[in-house]
Design goal:
13 helices; 3 strands; mainly alpha; P1 Nuclease
Length: about 300
């Protein structure tokens, strides 16, 4: 069993996950939906890349690595909290609820310094720009004859890309009401454990779709129509970020009831039902768009 320093373990337990997009189940659903729609050659290339992976944070298949970026962020591999401070802002884009400005939320869209791998880029970057950077790296990866360094960066790019497309479609990763994406809003609901608004959209609403990621993905895939595919494959990560923001504003924040005397929000069953329906749609869109980016890149 791997042992962690006590202080690091306490930090992980006490840390309020402002940048955790979906739980494991949500990310796995997105990956499974994407694998259904990618071209066979794309899937084969993904599996070929991952077969050479020696990283111990996850298994080396396209579904398991969907959670790798979270594991990497919280890993003490390069020293306690180093990976966290370097990559945690890459998981979200903080568009202000009342004055959304994508350029401001993305630190001005500063490009990577010449010759810098995307995995070593500046910490001040948003999920939109990191998706673009990692997709570009995969597209530039030679189909054969790549160096060990190129292959290692290609694997990291693939694992980050799979995760970050999921993160971008978690609505509370695209909005901020001076509450760290809902992490400072305490909520409760009938039959559910109290938590934060962010946690509810990460996990609680996903769990209401069912406990098995494979079965949930299968149901979602079955209802995706050719018209859905055509509509959802339009646009760019910047467009998708704005869509997630509008979803968060309309579906997560606007229906909130007034807070009680302690500032806590008591959500209704209707809020949970509508939220779960919207989460299902976001997971579908994320999987379809991830498949598109993977086909374009690989």
């Amino acid at each position: 069993m791997r042992k962690f320093p006590l202080l690091l373990l306490l930090a992980l337990v006490l840390h309020s996950p402002a940048s955790w997009g979906w739980g494991d189940e949500g990310h796995e659903v997105v990956a499974r939906v994407a694998l259904h729609f990618v071209a066979p050659a794309t899937r084969a290339r993904m599996e070929q890349l991952l077969a050479g992976d020696t990283d111990a944070l996850t298994a080396h298949d396209p579904v398991s690595v969907a959670v790798w970026a979270d594991r990497y962020r919280d890993s003490p591999e390069n020293g306690p909290r180093v990976n966290y401070h370097h990559t945690h802002e890459w998981h979200f884009v903080d568009l202000d609820l009342h004055h959304p400005n994508l350029a401001r939320a993305c630190h001005g869209h500063v490009p990577l310094p010449p010759g810098t791998p995307a995995s070593e880029g500046p910490a001040n970057a948003c999920v939109v720009d990191k998706i673009d950077q990692f997709a570009a790296e995969l597209h530039a990866l030679p189909a054969s004859g790549a160096s060990p360094q190129q292959l290692a960066e290609g694997r990291r790019a693939l694992k980050f890309l799979i995760h970050f497309v999921g993160d971008l479609h978690q609505p509370l990763h695209a909005i901020n009401d001076h509450d760290r994406g809902g992490n400072d809003k305490r909520v409760s609901a009938p039959g559910e454990r109290a938590g934060t608004l962010h946690q509810y959209w990460d996990n609680t609403l996903v769990a209401r779709l069912g406990p098995d990621a494979g079965q949930v993905a299968g149901r979602l895939i079955a209802r995706i129509t050719p018209a859905n595919l055509k509509a959802w494959q339009r646009g760019t990560p910047r467009d998708w970020a704005r869509e997630s923001f509008e979803t968060a504003r309309a579906e997560a924040y606007a229906p909130l009831p007034p807070p009680d005397g302690r500032g806590h929000y008591h959500l209704s069953e209707a809020y949970l039902d509508q939220g779960s329906n919207m989460v299902a749609l976001q997971l579908e869109e994320a999987g379809v768009r991830l498949a598109l980016l993977l086909d374009q890149s690989l």
